[in-house]
Design goal:
Blueprint (H helix, E strand, L loop, with lengths): L11 E11 L4 E9 L4 E8 L3 E7 L4 E9 L4 E5 L2 E3 L2 E2 L2 E2 L2 H13 L1 E13 L8 E12 L16 E6 H10 L5 H17 L1
Parallel strand pairs: 4-11
Antiparallel strand pairs: 1-2, 2-3, 4-5, 4-7, 5-6, 5-12, 8-9, 10-11
Helix pairs in contact: 2-3
Length: 196
């Protein structure tokens, strides 16, 4: 058996990259790629540091969800708490730390129990965003006097407590319409059904 893995015939190797715009946390670039057969092409890429999403389940089995305006969607969306990993001095924040920060900032709660469900690419056709999905339980509210982390200055959120059955119905009706929330709600329902 060889120590070298067999090369993937579909691999595209980046041979050049040109940054078109550097945003606050995203980089927009055009990558020149070379295929296994030697041919070349270009790919428009959004470089993203990654993100976290949290299925926050209260003692009554309800999901803590946030409603916020999303300019690209042109409407307010009901979502599970989530956010981008911070980058400081070139070091990307640990997703385990970010998940706790985002839960507190967006919902005003901390959790006593955490588990990571997994990771997934949000839009691998053009973006490098890898999202880390967590379940948080044993929630406790945090008062401002206790040093609560507040939402970012540009975030305006409404907190909702949504029973899982209602969240499933909202997914089916299209009222929950963002991918991370759809995936999270369905995944949590699958976990609950497996437990019997």
């Amino acid at each position: 058996m060889s120590d070298h893995p067999t090369p993937d015939p579909l691999e595209e190797r980046v041979v050049a990259s040109r940054v078109v715009h550097q945003g606050r946390y995203m980089e927009f670039r055009v990558d020149t790629i070379e295929r296994a057969d030697g041919s070349r092409g270009t790919r428009d890429v959004v470089g993203h540091p990654g993100a976290v999403a949290v299925l926050a389940v209260d003692d009554e089995g309800r999901l803590l969800m946030v409603r916020q305006w999303r300019v690209p969607a042109g409407r307010a969306l009901l979502e599970i708490p989530a956010g981008t990993l911070d980058v400081h001095d070139g070091v990307t924040e640990d997703p385990d730390v970010a998940s706790r920060r985002e839960l507190e900032e967006e919902t005003g709660h901390r959790a006593g129990s955490w588990s990571k469900l997994g990771t997934f690419w949000t839009a691998p056709g053009f973006a490098s965003e890898l999202m880390h999905l967590y379940v948080a339980r044993d929630l406790v509210p945090v008062a401002d006097a206790d040093g609560r982390l507040a939402p970012d200055e540009d975030e305006h959120l409404e907190l909702r407590h949504v029973p899982l059955a209602e969240a499933l119905a909202l997914v089916e009706s299209g009222d929950i319409a963002d991918a991370k929330s759809i995936l999270g709600v369905l995944w949590l329902d699958r976990i609950n059904r497996a437990k019997g």
